[in-house]
Write a structure and sequence with these properties.
Blueprint (H helix, E strand, L loop, with lengths): L2 E5 L3 E6 L4 E7 L2 E2 L21 E2 L20 E5 L3 E7 L2 H6 L4 E10 L2 E10 L5 E7 L2 E3 L15 E4 L5 E4 L9 E6 L3 E5 L3 E7 L3 E6 L16 E15 L4 E10 L1
Antiparallel strand pairs: 1-2, 2-3, 3-4, 5-10, 6-7, 7-8, 8-9, 9-19, 10-18, 11-18, 12-13, 12-14, 14-17, 15-16, 16-19, 17-18
């Protein structure tokens, strides 16, 4: 599986061309992103951890779950010490699943104490189409049962563990297990053994996920409580792009 690196004096980012997938972000002795010890890195199936790209839909808006972008090989368009641009265009495999022409451009920028992700979704077809998607980021944490998001209390969300039931958070500590679609949460801080400031744009929700001990087969029991997903997602309602139109889905992660 072909990979590229970004780096500066104290940071290191590893990106796989399979899936256009940011695998790791190491800042000093701190592993900011979580990658499963059981992740399949053979380039034959979706990778558990890092930042998977969901497109052209989120979750089970279509099949396969989370779309096909995370299991396609992307092309490297630009690469420097602190910057990479990867591209995925429609091909015979994608057209058999979703009969529309598109171009995805993932720009990854490593700045001091910060990682910037920009996914440009472009309609290169002759007709309009609808899509969803996400930057499905996994973050390292000491214990998913003790994660605090300031100003979370009383914020409404949709509970995917309860068929999308509308609820409110009781306090700033995340419940566990959790699969929550939180509308219009664009800026927040994550306190989970590391303190991060996260902002996202082009999304309608932040999706928060940790399934506790009902974890997938590619997550070990030992690691089940060591991650939390905070996803910049188009999850509630798909967007419509006219021919030639583009949309940017972004996430910026800053070490505090």
């Amino acid at each position: 599986m072909e990979r590229i690196q970004l780096s500066d004096a104290n940071q290191h980012v590893e990106i796989s061309l399979f899936g256009g997938h940011v695998l790791r972000w190491q800042a000093g002795d701190q592993s900011v992103l979580w990658l499963s010890e059981l992740a399949d890195l053979s380039g034959s199936s979706a990778i558990r951890g890092g930042v998977p790209i969901c497109f052209p839909w989120f979750a089970e808006q279509g099949s396969p779950k989370h779309g096909f972008a995370r299991t396609q090989r992307w092309q490297l368009q630009q690469h420097s010490q602190h910057h990479a641009v990867l591209v995925l265009r429609d091909n015979d495999t994608t057209l058999a699943i979703w009969p529309h022409k598109f171009e995805l451009t993932l720009t990854v920028t490593l700045a001091p104490h910060r990682l910037e992700l920009d996914l440009r979704i472009h309609n290169r077809d002759s007709h309009s189409w609808h899509c969803g998607g996400a930057l499905h980021s996994y973050f390292n944490c000491h214990d998913a049962r003790q994660i605090e998001l300031p100003r979370l209390a009383e914020r409404p969300y949709f509970d995917s563990l309860q068929q999308g039931q509308a609820r409110q958070f009781d306090c700033n500590i995340l419940p566990n297990p959790i699969d929550a679609i939180v509308p219009d949460l664009a800026e927040y801080q994550l306190e989970c053994g590391q303190k991060l400031a996260i902002s996202q744009h082009g999304s309608d929700s932040c999706v928060i996920w940790n399934p506790a001990f009902k974890h997938p087969n590619d997550v070990s029991a030992a690691q089940a409580m060591q991650f939390i997903c905070l996803e910049s997602a188009i999850a509630r309602q798909q967007i419509t792009l006219a021919p030639g139109q583009s949309h940017h889905l972004q996430q910026q992660i800053t070490l505090c």
